[in-house]
Amino acid sequence: MIPQIDQDIGISVYTTPYPSVNGKIKQNENDFSVSEVLSEKALSSFDNSEGHAVYLLTKSGIDTNHALSDIEKRYGILLKSLGLKDANATTKQYVFTHKKLKHLEKIEGKKYSAMRVGFTPKPISKKHMLGNVFEIMVSETTTPLPYFSDNEKILNFFGYQRFGSRRPITHLVGKSIIQGNYDDALDFLLNFSSKYDSEKNNELRKLISERKSESEVIELLPFSMDIERNLLKQLDADKDPKNAIRSIPLKLRRFYVQAYQSFLFNKTISLAYEYEEELFSPTMDDVCFDKNFELGKYQNDPRQKLAIPLIGHSYYKKSRFDYYIKKILEDESLSPKDFFINDFQELSLDGGFRNASIDIQDFSIQQNLVKFQLSRGSYATIVLREILKPENPLECGF
């Protein structure tokens, strides 16, 4: 039985044969840790002279965006990351400056610290990131954890946090923006209550939805609802939903549209798997990633990994997955050209590719401590979903 939350984000299959053991994660602060892994080439480029400062950011109880925003406010230093890390984990990741200036050696906040590890002549980029190492404590299992290995066949779904976890709306906001339904986008952002969210948050959503004016509820919102507060201020100023959407930081607006693209990807590989397409080994005429993560046609190389199209206005149609993508877009009342967004051209998506399956390395289970490394862009919660098969993922800490 596939949980409803999985279906809400486009996931409708399991691909491993093991039974449910339920179990919980993230029950304590140190139960879930993740550390970025950079290439040797990137690490060897760090020196102590000058260039773009690189910091190792360690945090817990705060997500990457809020940590970097706080650093900018407190220290006036604008830092970029290679990827977003969840608030509900202890994480270590590399962040860097885009300007060649002398910067502080150490930065500290309540829920984070950043130590400068060196300088680089050019900013580091996602191509320098090999992946992430995870250490996860699983508690309250009903039976022992199954024996897993590096060779398990697991589809490369986008995970719960991509869609908002307890309030899975990011893809719904993205779809509304793509369709030009800005009132709907604001309704999801401000008013939508989730059965998975806390009672307190849902009460606040009710206050927002029943407001007689924006100003009367702005001061009642907690720090964690900074996006909602800013939207209400903008609506209080001019009542224009398009301007309110435009007031959201560009990176976050892009995230919403990309989340909808991610939802469609999840739907695509779910449907293809249900139709018994081969998703774990490429075949003739498939597009593949090679060992250097370069795209190319299938060449009977065992190191190649099957690549699935990501939908955009210029998405690649000449694949065996076009049938499923067309079917999904028809159900969604959309076409690829809709991903060119006239009102917000900076949010337009042209398409791309993503690995069909997850590449797991160095997998081990010691009692209930699970360790493994994943390539950049793959989600640990998707691996754990196959191990635990929880009846209610969000109640189990996902």
What descriptors fit this protein?
alpha+beta; Alpha-Beta Plaits; four-stranded antiparallel beta sheet; about 30% helix; about 20% strand; globular
Characterise the protein shown here:
The structure is a single chain. This protein has 398 residues and is an alpha+beta fold. The strands form three sheets. Strands 2, 3, 4, 5, 6, 7, 8, 14 and 15 form a nine-stranded mixed sheet that branches. The protein has a four-stranded antiparallel sheet with strand order 11-10-12-13. A hairpin with a 5-residue loop joins strand 10 and strand 11. It has twelve helices and 15 strands.
Please give the structural blueprint.
Layout: H1 4-8, E1 22-24, E2 32-38, H2 40-44, E3 52-60, H3 64-75, E4 79-81, E5 90-97, E6 106-108, E7 112-120, E8 129-137, E9 139-141, H4 170-178, H5 182-190, H6 199-209, H7 215-218, H8 226-238, H9 241-246, H10 250-274, E10 287-289, E11 295-297, E12 305-310, H11 322-332, E13 352-355, E14 360-366, E15 369-375, H12 380-388
Helix pairs in contact: 4-5, 4-10, 10-11
In the CATH hierarchy, what is the class of one domain?
Alpha Beta
Largest sheet: 9 strands, mixed
Which structural class fits the helix and strand makeup?
alpha+beta
Number of DSSP helical runs: 12
Strand content: 15-25%
Proper CATH architecture of one domain: 2-Layer Sandwich
Radius of gyration: 22 Å
> What is the chain-wise order of helices and strands?
HEEHEHEEEEEEHHHHHHHEEEHEEEH
Low-confidence stretches: none
Helix content: 25-40%
Globally, the shape reads globular
Distance between the ends: 17 Å
Instruction: Write down the CATH topology of one domain.
Output: Alpha-Beta Plaits
Q: Write down the overall mean pLDDT.
A: 93
Secondary structure tally: strands: 15
